[in-house]
Design a protein that fits this description.
The protein has 79 residues and is of the alpha+beta class. 29% of the residues lie in helices and 38% in strands. The protein contains two helices and three strands, in the order αβαββ. It has a three-stranded antiparallel sheet. The radius of gyration is 14 Å and the shape is globular.
Length: 79
């Protein structure tokens, strides 16, 4: 519940900034509870970033998510 409230506050704050078009975040690829949570909060998966994190001598991939505000949208569209 607290995490949902925090994400909503961040989204609301970002929307209050006229030039802001999106809120981006990274999630380590094995954190399935966080990935499900952000998808539930309507964040969109943008891409997988290979070997983004280096933790205790090991590389881990990251997922990049975005929540668009103020009319923001993906720079590319399917044709």
């Amino acid at each position: 519940l607290a995490a949902s409230s925090l994400v909503r506050e961040v989204d609301k704050y970002a929307a209050s900034i006229p030039n802001c078009r999106g809120v981006y975040l990274h999630v380590i690829s094995y954190n399935q509870p966080a990935i499900r949570f952000y998808k539930k909060m309507l964040f969109k998966l943008v891409r997988r970033l290979p070997m983004f994190y280096y933790i205790r001598g090991q590389h881990y991939d990251s997922y990049l998510f975005v929540y668009y505000v103020n009319g923001g949208r993906s720079p590319c569209s399917p044709l």
